[in-house]
């Protein structure tokens, strides 16, 4: 499975971006998708996740109410709509897929995209 993340860029505080992650290759059914981020000098952290059906979504506390994760299984694509961006959201954002249940945990994910850089200026 290959994951291709896109949509990052430079935006002013208060602005918005929409990240996309397209999956290709030997795609197994019923996989959950997650977004993680890694800020300069910090470890990779959970941002959001969505189950295969889209019926359940999970968010890191600091992004609740500002970020929305969604997916289009017909296009094998997951999205992260990021609104009201803050300078502390600056990071490389990674998408990942998992067949497991603990979607907040990094080590539960099997496949990772290459990352897309989001920079929020103050």
Q: Can you give a write-up of this model?
A:
- By secondary structure, this protein is mostly beta strands.
- It is 0% helix and 51% strand.
- The protein has strands at residues 2-6, 9-12, 17-24, 32-38, 44-50, 57-59, 67-72, 77-82, 91-98, 111-112, 116-121.
- The mean pLDDT is 95.
Note the topology:
Elements: E1 2-6, E2 9-12, E3 17-24, E4 32-38, E5 44-50, E6 57-59, E7 67-72, E8 77-82, E9 91-98, E10 111-112, E11 116-121
Parallel strand pairs: 2-11
Antiparallel strand pairs: 1-3, 3-8, 4-5, 4-9, 5-6, 7-8, 9-10, 9-11
Summarize the structure.
The chain is mainly β. Helices cover about 0% and strands about 50% of the residues.
Defining key terms:
four-stranded antiparallel β-sheet; seven-stranded mixed β-sheet; mainly beta; 122 residues
Structural class: mainly beta
Number of helices, counting only DSSP H or I runs of 4 residues or more? 0
Give Rg in angstroms: 13 Å
Strand content: over 45%
Share in helix: under 10%
On the 0 to 100 scale, the average pLDDT is 95
Could you spell the SSE succession in H and E letters?
A: EEEEEEEEEEE
Q: Profile the largest sheet.
A: 7 strands, mixed
* End-to-end separation: 37 Å
- Overall morphology: globular
Unreliable runs: none
Number of strands: 11
